[in-house]
Amino acid sequence: xxxxxNRKYFLFIVPAIFMVVAFKFFPIGNAFRLCLYDWDGxxxxxxxxxxxNFKVLVKDQYFWKALKATLCYAFGITIVKNIVGxxxxxxxxxxFKGRGAVRAIVYLPIMISGFIMGQIMYYFYxxxxxxxxxxxxxxxxxxxxxxQTGNRTILVVILTTSILHIGSTMLTYLAGLQRIPNxxxxxxxxxxxxxxxxxxxxxxxxxxxxxxxxxxxNLIASFKIYDIIGAMGAGGPDGASSSLTQxxxxxxxxxxxxxxxxxxxxxxxxxxxxxxxxxxxxxxxxKVEF
Length: 290
What we know:
The protein is an all-alpha fold.
């Protein structure tokens, strides 16, 4: 009787298993299959090359440049968004006049697409006629070529992306802050703790679920950065600020090297897993139940 019940219950998860296999494991397996071929992306003819694409990838200087830039984007955006998002969450969690307006203003940029945000910010950062350089000129300061080098471009993209998505991070921390019982804070104050001690020993430990969610989601999303870089005319010089997603698109759709593009995508997937999994495991080990 119990076995029959277990079989009936199993039927309820069959659709979910099908969805996972169809939309997760099958694409991963198909991507690996494409890695083994020299293919232009649309021709019915596919030439089997074995692991040749992986050998080419190891020697591809543009892959290593894009990997370096992508890691800078991922960790830079994640750090900025979480630090500033937490600070904003703490600020708007307080009672003050106009709190709703502040929340709306901070969250508003997320309503804009990444491409549009990149286009808008391009007119702030551009060398000739850019808003920032116009302001510097008014102060008698020489204009700055904000995207002259790869490092500068990466910094500009990190700041722009952080502004765009900081609202969602703020809301994540705000939801976590509102779950913390006021009784714990009051007890901490009665024991003579100041605001800093209250934040370190009460607020921060009890925010671990929000921190875990925010860090992991922001990290994975930042690895996939694509539209803002293209909209701002970034990627240079000589690929120093290109992301891996841009490189995949370039090889797959522009140079018609679908097999090699799939190889970069397959390796990129495992890079994300190798980085995100231990971070998630470490943060979960620090979680505090209340």
